[in-house]
Amino acid sequence: MNTFRQYVQDRDNACEAGGILLGTVHGTHMLIEQATAPTARDRRFRTFFERLPFGHKEVADSRWAATQGTVRYLGEWHTHPEDHPRPSGLDRAEWSILAAQRLDKRPMLAVIVGRKSLYVELVPCSGVGSILACIC
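^ thats the sequence. predicted structure below, dont judge the formating
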């Protein structure tokens, strides 16, 4: 949550930010242990964010190796410049692609950080997600 708070778009000129979510899986439950911060190579604009693999993949691989596969990729997070965020068509399209690419076929967690709330969705490999929460 500290990473999320650090990148809330609370200024008119603040760019979107994002990264990957890493954590552990316990049956049908997921525990987020880390959200990577955006890197200098990610593409950040006021209403657009593109996460590039540089930096994020290295963190994920390192955590996977250090924990013998216990800490793994859970999903993606990014910000929106709105109080109560909702996914765009581009967000949904990207989530569908990423969820379909999961080798373990587990659903992907997608989080959008707004100024006042979070949007959280679980996206299965079929690409049709389930809204888990809009946290105010």
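The first helix runs from residue 2 to 6.
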